[in-house]
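Sat 14:20. Reprocessing the chain from the morning session after the first attempt stalled halfway. Input below, unchanged.
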Amino acid sequence: MTLKRRREGPSGAFRPAIDPSSAAPLPRQLYLSLRNAIAGGRLTTGQRLPSTRLASMEWRISRGVIAEAYEILIAEGFAVARHGSGTYVASSIPDGVARDDRSAGEGGHPIRRSVSSAATTILTHGPSLEPQKALPFVTGRIAHDDRTARLLNRIGARHMNYAFEGYGDIQGEKALRAAISAHLAVSRGVRCTAEQVFITAGTQQALDLAFRVLMTPGDTAVVEDPCYPPARQCLALNGINVVGLPVDRDGINIDKLMAGGMRPPSIFYVTPSNQYPVGSVLSLARRLGLLAYAEENDCWIVEDDYDSEFRYEGHPIASLHGLDKANRVLYTGTFSKALLPSLRIGYLVVPADLVSVFRAVRPAVDRCPATFQQRVIADFLDEGYFPAHLRRLRERLRASRDMLVGFLTDRVAEHVEVLLPDQGINLTVKSTGTWSDDTTVSSAALERGVVVMPLSRMNVASTDKSRLLLGFSALSEQEADMGTRLLAEVFRNKEFVDS
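Finished this time. C-alpha cells:
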C-alpha cells in the first residue's frame, strides 16, 4: 500500500529571525518572529506550520524550542493544534494585535532594549509560564463544584455595595485572618493569631513579600532541586543567589549543609508536605534537622504549603511551622487550588515580632488586598462550608488520581514508573530506561495534543531528564482515556525511545 505523503504548506519556506547574541531565550524569539509573521500577513490563516521535525532541520533549532514556541502561539490564539494533522495558523488574529510590531526592527529582528539584569535572568532561565490550554494532563486546572459555586455566588451578593468604602487594612480583613488562623490551627497545627496573618494575591505575592523583607540582594537562598519555577524566578527578581539541594523520597537533603560543606544561607524555600514537582514528603528526621540548622545558623525558612488540603492516604503531615520552637518559619498557603485561582487570595503567617516590619513594607508592594473576595471567603469559612467542600473535592481528586494511574499502568507501564502521590493534584512518572530526554517526550506529546511537563525545566543544578509531571485535577475519564492513548503512541514511536 502506498501512503499518501502530506504536502508541505507555504509556511515551509518561512525563516524565523533569530539573534544568537540576544539575551532573550530562543523560544521567546521564535514565538515573536512567528507571531509577527502571522500579524503581518506573511503567514496566512489556515496555513499549516512546519512539523517540529521539519522546522528543526530547516531552522537549525531544537525541537523542544520549536514546540515551546508553538505552545505559546496556541495559548495566545495565534495558532491551533489539530490532532493527527499538525499546528495551523488560527483563522483570526486575537483582538488588539497590530499588523506591525514596533519592538522589532527591519527584517523582524528584535531591537535591543535595556532591562534589568534580574529580568534578563528570568528571561533566560526556567520554563515558560504562559497560560496553557485545557489539554489532558495540564497542571493547575481546578475541579468545578456546583454546590460551592452557588454558595459563593449567594455570599458574594451580600458584599456588592462598595460606594462608600476606602482602602482596606494593610494586612487584610480581620474576619478572614481570624478564620484562616482557626483553620490552620486545626488542619495544619500552625500556631498563630490573626495579627500574624497577611492576606496576599496568591502564594506568589506572599513569597515576594517574604523575600523582600528577609533578604538583601546578593544574599543566598537554598531551594529544592528541582524547584517550583515561579519561586525561583521571584528570588532572581529580588537579586538573590539560588543554590539547589537534591530531593529524594524523603524530601530535600541538607546533609551537605550540615557537614559544613557550604556557608549557611539567609533563607530556605521549601515545599515539605508535597514537594513540587517531585511529590516527596520531607521526613520527620529531616524536618527536625532543618529546624535545628536554621536556629543554630540564624536562617529563615519559608514553608510553601500550597496544597495541604488534598491528603488522600493517612493523617496530614505536620507542618514545619507547627514544629518550630524558635520562630524561624514563615508559612504561606493559598485558596487557588481549594477554591478558585481567580479569587487571588493567599496568605502569609509571619513571626509576631516581624509584623510591624511587614506592615511597613507591604504598602510599597501593594496598598491592600482586594476587600470583596476576602469577605466572601471569610463568610464561606465562618459559616462552616469549607470542610464539606474539601471532602467532596478530595474524593473527586482521589478518583481522578486512581483513574489516571490505572490508564498509565495499562498502557505505558513499559516506559514509565508511576510515582503514586499521597497528596496534591499532580503526579510524577519516571522513565523505566526506554527513554532519557523528558523535553523530547514532552514536545512529541504536545504535537499530539497532550501536556506532560518535563521536570528538567525546573532543575537548578540537577541534570536528571527522566521525569514528567502530569496533572489530574478536573480530569475527565474521556480526557484520561484519550490522553493516555496518545501518550502510548508517543512511546511507540521509536524516535523517542532508546534502543
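The longest helix spans residues 385-412.
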